[in-house]
Each structure stands twice: as structure tokens, then as C-alpha cells.
Amino acid sequence: MIIPRVYLLHAAIVAAWLLLVPPSSYDPTFGKGNRFDTSRPLSEWIKVGEYPSQPECEVQRLEMMNVIALGSPGNDMPQRLSMGQCVEK
């Protein structure tokens, strides 16, 4: 079966990768009360960005992790990004 070129281009445009980070919840028994629950379904994770490819998503995850860590001491986002996942949309 031959797939028309128009459909292939459309598929390439809609393909995307989402950068997701785990949600946090208050837990007084765990350090400062932050806990990142990576066992929760990905549908409950927080969308940080959308990228055209998996490698671009990973590069952005690492860059954001480093930039935020340098600029905002005490921010929990670098830790969340370290547990983040790039997932195909």
C-alpha cells in the first residue's frame, strides 16, 4: 500500500514529545514535606513543555534543570526535572 505524501507530512507535524515531571504532595514525614510520586500515572504528571523529537525534549530537560538550579536556590524544580520523562504524545 502506498501512503500519499500529504498524509506522511501531516503525521510528522502532529508527532510531539511531552516533558512531564512528577506531581508533589505534602508529606510531613519526608524531609521538608515535598515528595515526588513517580508511581502515579503519567496522566497526573505536570506538563512542562512540548518538543518535536525525543532528543530535543531530553536536551531541554537537562538545560532547564541546570538553569533553574543556578538561578533559584531552594526551588524543587531541578529535582523534579531529574525525575522527569519525555513521553511521546
Quick description:
This protein has one domain (18-88).
Description:
This protein has 89 residues and is of the alpha+beta class. The protein has one domain (18-88). Helix content is 38%, strand content 24%. It contains three helices and five strands. It has helices spanning 5-14, 54-71, 77-82; strands spanning 17-21, 24-26, 34-36, 46-51, 85-88. The strands form two sheets. Strands 4-1-5 form a three-stranded antiparallel sheet. A two-stranded antiparallel ribbon has the order 2-3. Strand 2 and strand 3 form a beta hairpin. It is flat. The two termini are 26 Å apart. The relative contact order is 0.25.
Terminus-to-terminus distance:
26 Å
Q: What order do the SSEs take from the amino end to the carboxyl end, as H and E?
A: HEEEEHHE
- In oligomeric terms, what are we looking at? single chain
Query: What is the 3D form?
Result: flat
* Approximate strand percentage: 15-25%
**How much helix, percentage-wise, in residues?**
25-40%
Defining traits:
89 residues; 3-stranded antiparallel beta sheet; two-stranded antiparallel ribbon
Chart the SSEs and their pairings.
Layout lengths: L4 H10 L2 E5 L2 E3 L7 E3 L9 E6 L2 H18 L5 H6 L2 E4 L1
Antiparallel strand pairs: 1-4, 1-5, 2-3
